[in-house]
Amino acid sequence: MFNCKTLAFFIVTLIFAAPIYSHHGPASHYLLDQLITVEGVVTKFRLINPHARIYFDVINEDGSVQHWLAEGNASAILKRRGWNRNTLKPGDMIKVRGNPARDGGPKVDWKLITLADGTELRGGNTVSSERERILDDIEKRRQNRKGDN
Amino acid sequence: MFNNVSVYRLSFRTFLAGSVFVLLAGCLTNSAVVEETVIEAPQIDGVWANALLTPDDERWRIEDLACSRTGCSLTGFTYLQSLLNDPSNDERSVKELYYDMREYEKTQNVDLLTELGLEKQTDYKPSEGAALDCKPDGDSLRHQILAPVPIQIEQFDDKVVFRYEYWNAVRTAYLDGRPAPEGMTASRLGHSVAHYEGQTLIVKTTNVIANVTGIPGGGAFAPSPDTVFVERYTHNPGDGRLDLELTLIDPVHFRKPYGNQRSYLPAPDWELDEFVCEAFTGEF
Q1: Other Cβ atoms closer than 10 A to B50
Q2: Helices (H), B45-93
Q3: Interface touch B95/A132, C-beta < 8 Å
Q4: pLDDT of B127 strictly over 80
Q5: Which of A90, B125, B217, B261 is the most buried (most CB within 10 A)?
Q6: Alpha-carbon distance B34 to nearest alpha carbon in chain A (angstroms)
Q7: B166 and A76: CB-CB below 8 Å?
Q8: pLDDT band of B39, cuts 50, 70, 90
Q9: CA distance, residue B155 to nearest chain A CA (Å)
Q10: Using the beta-carbon criterion (under 8 Å), do A135 and B98 form an inter-chain contact?
Q11: How far A44 CA sits from the closest chain B CA (Å)?
Q12: pLDDT tens string A103-129
């Protein structure tokens, strides 16, 4: 669960991930070989193309508020996967895990959004983030089909 | 007054005329049936979804799902199918087989790309993304066709219209084989003609602006302006799947046709949404 103290921090974690290119070019704006986790409060959610955007505020250790932006997949795809303009609302507390901006700015290409009640939302744009999960899901499907046969 | 003979003659004439009519009608009917058989086209009218949009649909094959995010080259797709169908790979994970396929695609590039193609592949800079600034002009026809967004196909007697949610684009493929208008300036979607072969719709497109397009195994470059794009949409009436093979014929950069693969399933309850694009202005 989130509280004000956890909101006072944002955690940056670096892990290895393969750099991959997709047409919308997250590689040109985000460091695909690094991963950060940022916690904050949603101020605006835009379900649009080419990438959905979550605007959120992060309270830094010194108490100052920093405006952040998380970018995800295209609305044309997210809407077909059950997202709508109310999936995230102003005031929602979120934990965003994703790739940091190349320019060091307060932006993240999200891979996973965790809501205050623990609900996890995917819908990230970065190809590598979706691929691993998709392949894991496909493996389950393949095993189930083998079982059925 | 009619005697028996004249009545008989009249009846015979009536019978003869009727027989001729029936025979002619039969011939005409048969001709119509034969003609109908010749022009029979796959019924692919409607909205179509790809595996990225409806991954829970049980009709998707494992290879459709594996290639759903970025698409696969035709070579890679076929290779992945062969790996999945090989019983000796039953204990290997889909993930392993998928990465094997991607490595295989890279090895195939040596045979696929000309020296110029290989050179351009390494020259590629990933910052060349047209979609981020919401300007479709720089986006490639290949990406327009393969983008994992719903499409709609409309079949008419003289044309097939492709509507894409992606960029709200509309392409018309003429069935009369007409050449591109004289002096036509190359455009992003080019000039398309089409014809049917059994359950396959074949679309040939020329006069396409050379926009940067992706290639298997990574990288991208602008194909030659003379590139011919050939789409083959094959309908499988059994499970309703529509398989697309998109081939780029560009001898300047490719030693052999470069094929791409994507499959679709019907989405009869869907409508295309307007593609609202909003470029990021830098404001938070």
Answers
A1: 28
A2: 62-66, 74-85
A3: yes
A4: no
A5: B261
A6: 43
A7: yes
A8: low
A9: 24
A10: yes
A11: 10
A12: 999 999 999 999 999 999 988 876 665
Phi, psi of B19 (to 5 degrees): -65, -45
Contacts A–B by Cβ distance under 8 A: 103
ipTM, interface predicted TM-score of the complex? 0.76
pLDDT at residue B28, rounded to an integer: 47
Query: What is the rounded CA–CA span in Å between residue B174 and residue B177?
Result: 6
Residue given tokens 């020296």 in the structure block: B115
C-alpha–C-alpha distance, residues B279 and B228, integer Å: 32
Measured CA to CA, the distance from residue B175 to residue B196 in angstroms comes to 9
What's the residue count for chain B? 284
Distance from CA of A106 to the nearest CA of B (A): 9
Q: Are B46 and B161 in contact (CB under 8 A)?
A: no
Nearby residues of B137 by Cβ (< 8 Å), 6 or more positions away: B130, B188
3-state secondary structure of B174: strand
- Residue A23 CA to residue A73 CA, distance in Å, equals 12
Chain A residues inside the 8 Å CB shell of B98: 135
Specify the amino acid at residue A137: D
Nearest CA in chain B to A30: B127
- B106: which chain A residues are within 8 Å (Cβ-Cβ)? none
Whole-angstrom distance, CA of residue B264 vs CA of residue B50: 5
Q: Where are the alpha helices (DSSP H) in chain A?
A: 4-7, 26-29, 75-78, 127-148
Residues in chain A: 149
Are the CB atoms for B213 and B220 separated by under 8 Å? Answer: yes
Distance of alpha carbon B206 from the chain centroid: 15
